[in-house]
Amino acid sequence: MASPKDWPEPVIRVQSLSNMAAIPNRYIKPPRDRPAINSIQNDVNIPLIDLQGVFGDDSALTATILSQVSEACLDWGFFQVVNHGVSPLLMDHAREVWRRFFHLPMEEKQVYANSPKTYEGYGSRLGTQEGAILDWSDYYFLHYLPMLLKDHEKWPALPSSLREVIEEYGAEVVKLCGVLMKVLSMNLGLGEEYLQKAFGGEDIGACLRVNFYPKCPQPDLTLGLSSHSDPGGMTLLLPDDQVPGLQVRKSTTWVTVKPVPHAFIVNIGDQIQVLSNAIYKSVEHRVIVNSAEERVSLAFFYNPKSDLQIEPAKELVKPDKPALYKAMTFDEYRLFIRTRGPRGKSQVESSLIKSPKSKLITAAPPATAKCCTV
Q: Which terms are listed as keywords in the entry (predicted)?
């Protein structure tokens, strides 16, 4: 499957459209996809978990935290974490240095314009389908790991502190991802290093997409990011804690996440859904925009090594729960979805991904999914 080389139409920066009286037709979603339908704005929120002492000397506390994470994964596929070990000052600095980048003159940002071949750089659309309805957002995508893909010259030179801040931020978030991978692996009843080894051990992939959602004159007609599940392994999102926008699908409704200051929002990606044989499922989410305030968020994607085969863990394949997915490398999966753009859960549930031997069985997760092996 060949990787697309260029965008099908000239790229328009959404930031340049934010002062218009009405949004162009290219951004107007079909009525069924507009954000006002089936959205919950009340006190419902994704679980909040305190990670303080998760692998300390208190085994009872460790068991409690692991149980909370497992329940959140089974019930939501999303949760927030506090006391996670990443400096609050660094989190604030990382978000604000990127905000400053998006407010640079356009000619300085255009130097980093991206293509669909790798998405690395300054972008304004996902997917290469000609005539597609677009999302109301700009972004910057960069590789953090593996080292052979990390190229500081492809990171913005301005603001002058950006490269240094993101290098430090990435190192801290990678550590946190390692802790969470251990938690997920133990909760699945696998060895505590199983998922990390399945991802490639220390030789994993990690990348950052910084999302910029400009003010929108008609936020009820569009989305900042269309409904999708994340194709990678696990995502840690640093949200704009002053301006909510992320929505998570809960059954037939959309719940607007209320960010807790200095918390990360964690969600399961498609690769962990495959490895867990759908005990843990990636969950559809989307982003709404508003007419009063812009938003900046940082999505850090923790992924398998790109050329490793990813398939259901043999320990989680049972006579009544066959392997639901074919073995596929993350590179193959990315190429499969690259031309399509965000499409809900249709990517990981596609017949090209599902195992021909799989059966549509609805069963309770095995006991190991809820138990903690400490």
A: Dioxygenase, Iron, Jasmonic acid signaling pathway, Metal-binding, Oxidoreductase, Plant defense
pLDDT tens column, 59-115: 999 999 999 999 999 999 999 999 999 999 999 999 999 999 999 999 999 999 999
Distance of CA 289 to the CA centre of its chain: 18
pLDDT in tens, 25-57: 999 999 999 997 666 667 789 999 999 999 999
Residues near 202 by Cβ (< 8 Å), separated by ≥ 6? Answer: none
DSSP state of 353: T
Which 3 state secondary structure label does DSSP give 49?
strand
Domain boundaries, the chain: 14-359
Tell which phi-psi region holds residue 52, choosing left (phi > 0), alpha (psi between -120 and 50) or beta: beta
**Contact yes or no for 124/139 (Cβ under 8 A):** yes
Indicate the fold that domain 14-359 takes in CATH.
Answer: Jelly Rolls (2.60.120)
Report DSSP letters for 71-127, one per residue: HHHHHTSEEEEES-SS-HHHHHHHHHHHHHHHTS-HHHHHTTB--TTT--EEES---
DSSP track, 117-184: TT--EEES-----TTPPPPS-EEEEEEEESTTT--GGGS---STTHHHHHHHHHHHHHHHHHHHHHHH
The span from the CA of 61 to the CA of 166, in Å, is 32
CB distance 261 to 197 below 8 Å: no
Question: What is the spatial distance between Cα 362 and Cα 374, in angstroms, rounded to a whole number?
Answer: 29
Neighbours of 5 (CB within 10 A): 9
Cα separation, 37 vs 257, whole angstroms: 16
CB atoms near residue 123 (< 10 Å): 21
Task: Check: CB of residue 347 under 8 Å from CB of residue 270.
Answer: yes
> SS3 string of 286-336?
EECCCCCCCEEEEEEEEECCCCCEECCCHHHCECCECCCECCEEHHHHHHH
